[in-house]
Amino acid sequence: MNKTPEKTNSCDTWLERPGTVWHLIGIGGIGVSAVARLLLGAGRSVQGSDVRTSQLTEALVEEGARVTIGHHANNLEGADVVVVSTAIPDTNIELITARAQGITVVHRSQLLGALIHRAPTAIGVTGTHGKGTVSATIQCLLNAGGLEPGFVIGGLLLDEGTNARTGAGQILVAEVDESDGSHRNVRPTHAVLNNLELDHLNYYDSWEKLESFMISFAADNPRLETFHANQDDEGVQGILPKLQSLGVSVRTFGIEQPSADLWAKDLRPRRLENGHLGGSMTVIQKIDGRDQELGTVEIQLPGRYNLSNVLGGLSVALELGVDFPTAQRALGSFQGLENRFTVVESGDKLVVKDYISHPTGIRRVLEGASLFDQGPIVAVFKPYRFTMIHYLQDDYRDAFVGADHVIITELYTAGEVPIPGIDTEFLCNKIRESGAKVSFVKEMNDIGSHLLRHHPEPGMVLFFGGDDLFGVADRYTRSLAGDQC
Predict the structure, then answer these.
(1) Which of 41, 112, 318, 377 is deepest in the core (most CB within 10 A)?
(2) What's the pLDDT at 273?
(3) How far is CA 46 from CA 24, 35, 82, 260, in A?
(4) pLDDT at 134 over 90
(5) Which helix (H) or strand (E) covers residue 60, if one does?
(6) How many CB atoms lie within 10 A of CB 445?
(7) How confident is the model over 381-396, as a mean pLDDT?
(8) Which domains does the chain have, with CATH numbers?
(9) Residue 59 host element (H or E)
């Protein structure tokens, strides 16, 4: 269900009261746990609940939060403010109880917006794909430049081992989710739009709505100083003239885009010491209207799309005073985020995990995988939402052309009402139209044995989905090393 953020009380007011007790429903979620960590880092009292114990809930307890497993009305005891994300349904007993008792209920984005507002310099990164990696890049570069930023990102930074931290400086880097329109609650001083495509079709029923919401995110923000936009992306290109006509100060970046303020050429794959692939590019910046070659950047992450993500982060870092040689050194060891093209080697197989479910992102990851030249590429995909399959069916048809074999498992509906004729069988047949070999394995737990039986040869297996599918990937990886699948 789409949830309109509630505005019972301002989060700014509650943050001014150090004794406030914050209760976060779904505290083990990657986004909710991140704001919980910022509250804990600021010395606030944090409690919350989730349906299961996880690495994140255990870490939050160690950091000082009180976490209850299971949702119950009495979990709210002592709470002054209840924080919810769009993932929490109106039928949640704790949300029902909070409303019945008159406890202030705020959306996660409102809390994030208030935390961002308290930072003199705040960078908000949004867009359909890559915003986590761009955010992590900015954090890495600002940290290398001695600016010690805080950060709140929807993924675990491999260089930091966490998804959020309060910084010693005056800067906060935030990944800003646009999926439910709540990004308009956030007012950064610098923004990045990495790309713009119809994705969350349960919320955005038209391109016009998505475009207008993104324009208002920039144009209605009195704090905004610069707006960094990826000129590679067709959707971003479409809104740039409108933003500029509204007086937004735009900085553009792009791969092989000589008209951009910051652009790159000479893209090449880079063989790493462990045999995996990264990439390199030559970076050019416009200074006083003229191109100046800054030098070559080498990264450990594969694929053109990751070079683009890094270029977006570099655009912000240079704006905030990080010098290029410092950035250059830092990017050489930047590891990115967990489960964003995370590669594990087991015998003669490379197993890759990536959260992406949008067809454009899947295609980009498969393009990056092809550079490894490791052998046959098998893509394992858990589809997401009836609306995604329905409206993006032709994009899904073309997304898997880089795979030698596609394995589809039962879709995650996210509670959507079924669309007649739209199911996993429909998706399998649609992908087959591209000439791809497609198999349907209904039960996720059967995927590992299916792979062992049908793909004993060296190669790559890429898992596209979420934590439950990644659990299958982990068990499969262990089985390759001789453990029972």
Answers:
(1) 112
(2) 83
(3) 8, 10, 10, 44
(4) yes
(5) helix 55-62
(6) 13
(7) 92
(8) 11-107 (3.40.50.720), 119-331 (3.40.1190.10), 342-480 (3.90.190.20)
(9) helix 55-62
